[in-house]
Amino acid sequence: QVHLVESGGGSVQAGGSLRLSCAVSGDTYSRNCLGWFRQAPGKAREKVASIYDGAHTDYADSVQGRFTISQDNAGNTVYLQMNSLKAQDTAMYYCAAGRSPVRGYCFSPDFGYWGQGTRVTVSS
Fold first, then answer.
1. What is the radius of gyration, based on Cα positions, of the chain?
2. If pLDDT is split at 50, 70 and 90, which confidence band does 73 have?
3. Would you give the end-to-end CA distance of the chain in angstroms?
4. For position 29, what pLDDT does the model report?
5. Structure confidence at residue 30 (pLDDT)
6. Can you give the three-state secondary structure of 39-67, one letter per residue?
7. Rounded to an integer, what distance in angstroms lies between the CA atom of residue 87 and that of residue 41?
8. Cα–Cα 20 to 30 A to 27, which of 34, 69, 75, 95?
């Protein structure tokens, strides 16, 4: 089992920044992938960013160059630094963990553990 708890959401004006944090605990074998997903009202959940084995990162096209995913050395905390926020970034953000069988990449179905979510609201 893996337990995840997000923090750091809030309200910000367009162009501003927020940093989300996620405390991760539990079985380390089950989590070579850590990631952030988001779901806006009326929309499907989408993968925002992921990090494989603490090194290989991947981003959605919509956030490339604006968001950065990172984790501490122990893999117990994963961060999402969000800069140049836009109104369309408004969503509930979820931290997730899982295990990918493919070296270097995390696919959305690989994520089986989820946090409770933290809300991000960007006003224009």
1. 13
2. confident
3. 40
4. 85
5. 84
6. ECCCCCCEEEEEEECCCEEEECCCCCCCE
7. 13
8. 69
